[in-house]
Design a protein that fits this description.
It contains 18 helices and eleven strands. It is of the alpha/beta class. The strands form three sheets. Strands 1, 4, 5, 6, 7, 10 and 11 form a seven-stranded mixed sheet that branches.
Length: 501
């Protein structure tokens, strides 16, 4: 098992990103979403919503982002640069005015995207994401050979060497909406994968890094999640951040989370969680290991997509995840077995459980996850909590326990945001999270006590709730000028407290 100090830190947003968005007329067509809450929506509407989310996350992280749109012609809608918060309203208004028409100059768009990411004497470096629902039928500058060595149409430049000059490090992800070789019926996956194969061969021949992936999506939820996941390494699909929730949505989620706290017998996973407050007490004066909060079990969320850099960043585990994302579960299990010596036991068992669950083998998934819990208990107290939360998320999914999933998502999201907060803010909120988790114990006493002890147990629980509520109000006064994320966390805790009375 790797030592905790060797754990891989997972960045949240990549540094240089260009999105290539298809604005051909077919993007006006509806996209079915049988499992979504909004019914059918136009492809372009879903794509716009995803771009808004990407922009907001990019503005928070100070990332460089560019947007290229294409129909018969290619336009740089948003030049590559750092996203500033005060520029968002202007950019969002611009995106809202984008109207699909015409055909698809896909190869020309990729060529322009490569030019935006080009660095003098350093090649093309960055992350390219292409979103399209068709095939190339309008490019006039660039072309792709059907097979290596085949002739190009006269006047066209070969896109492969243009995208991958020497010293480059490019990650190209193609998100294809629908499937089919007929025009406007979807993306020809065979043709796209042949193109990516040429890129892989050139990158290998020149000894360059890079990842080249094709992902097919068929519903609005899949399109949104894959677009966002292409730019973010860790996210919960289309799950909104606390500060972006409508007050009624926030109240519903907090009430659902409180149900898991109030009934641990029915939500057994909650009893496995550790609060940062509890682990810091248990660890005494031990110092947390840098990077230990991002062990490999957090490569992706439970609903995650395939980020770039997987093999370079995570080695053998990255190969496993690539196979998993491609739904090649047998290959993922084989790779996991081959690389087992270089993957920490807790990570290996977590991914074994996740792969089995995706295959529908719930019994095998449960056994592997049980082993992951046992390995997690061996970790140093200062590094346990984030790992346990990841395991709890997967177990909640396996058991279809929505209340526990809501609670753990809140705790995990809040803790990740606190990693960059001031020490005083982090310490105060971690104390509140810990005390909130501990209330499940006093609440249960009010349900398990005998008739003679019931009143005493109820009084003790009410006193415990009041103490946490008092600390919450102190935190509100102290952090009155805090950001919206902290305010959202405090609101969530307050609603949980009200439900725990």
């Amino acid at each position: 098992m790797q030592e905790a100090s060797e754990a891989i830190a997972v960045p949240v947003v990549r540094e240089r990103n260009v999105l290539l968005l298809d604005l051909s007329k077919s993007m006006l067509a509806p996209l079915p979403d049988p499992q979504g809450s909004r019914g059918e929506r136009q492809k372009i509407e879903v794509a716009r919503t995803a771009v808004y989310r990407i922009l907001h996350d990019g503005a928070k992280a100070g990332t460089a982002f560019g947007l290229v749109t294409f129909t018969n012609t290619v336009r740089v809608a948003v030049p590559l640069g750092t996203i500033e918060g005060d520029h968002l309203p202007y950019i969002e208004n611009l995106i809202s005015l984008l109207t699909p028409s015409g055909r698809s100059a896909i190869w020309d768009a990729i060529g322009v995207g490569a030019d935006l990411l080009r660095i003098p004497e350093a090649g093309v470096r960055g992350n390219l994401v292409l979103v399209t629902d068709g095939w190339d039928n309008a490019s006039t500058r660039f072309g792709v050979r059907d097979t290596p060595g085949a002739p190009l149409r006269e006047g066209l430049t070969d896109l492969v060497p243009h995208l991958l000059p020497e010293h480059s490090e490019v990650n190209l992800r193609i998100i294809g909406i629908g499937e089919g070789a007929e025009r406007d019926k979807g993306v020809d996956g065979g043709r796209m994968n042949a193109f990516l194969g040429q890129l892989r061969s050139r990158a290998a021949a020149l000894g360059m890094g890079g990842t080249f992936l094709f992902q097919e999506v068929r519903t609005g939820s899949e399109l949104f999640a894959q677009m966002v996941q292409a730019f973010l390494d860790i996210t919960y699909g289309d799950d909104q951040a606390l500060e972006e929730l409508h007050p009624e949505e926030l109240a519903q989620r907090a009430a659902s989370a409180a149900m898991a706290l109030k009934a641990p017998a029915e939500h057994g996973t909650v009893t496995r969680l550790r609060s940062e407050r509890a682990t810091s007490v248990a660890a005494g004066s031990a110092t947390a290991v840098p990077g230990a909060s991002e062990l490999e079990v957090g490569v992706l969320s439970t609903t995650g997509g395939a980020p770039a850099y997987l093999r370079d960043r995570y080695g053998p585990l990255g190969e496993v995840v690539e196979a998993y994302i491609a739904s090649n579960y047998d290959e993922a299990l084989r790779l996991l077995s081959v690389g087992s010596r270089s993957v920490p036991p807790v990570s290996r068992l977590y991914w074994e459980a996740r792969i089995h669950f995706a295959r529908g083998a719930t019994d095998e998934a449960t056994r592997a996850l049980l082993g992951a819990w046992e390995e997690a208990e061996k970790l140093p107290p200062a590094t346990q909590s984030p790992v346990l939360r990841r395991l709890a998320l997967l177990q909640a999914r396996i058991q279809n326990d929505k209340e526990t999933e809501t609670l753990v998502r809140f705790l995990d999201d809040a803790q990740q945001r606190l990693n960059g907060a001031k020490p005083a803010v982090r310490e105060r909120l971690q104390d509140l999270f810990g005390r909130l988790l501990e209330l499940r114990g006093t609440y249960q006493l009010t349900r398990l006590s005998g008739a003679g002890d019931l009143q005493d147990a109820a009084l003790k629980h009410e006193a415990a709730v009041e103490e946490v509520f008092s600390r919450l109000q102190d935190a509100r006064l102290e952090f009155a000028a805090a950001d919206a994320a902290i305010e959202g966390a405090l609101d969530f805790i307050e609603i949980c407290l009200a439900e725990m009375r």
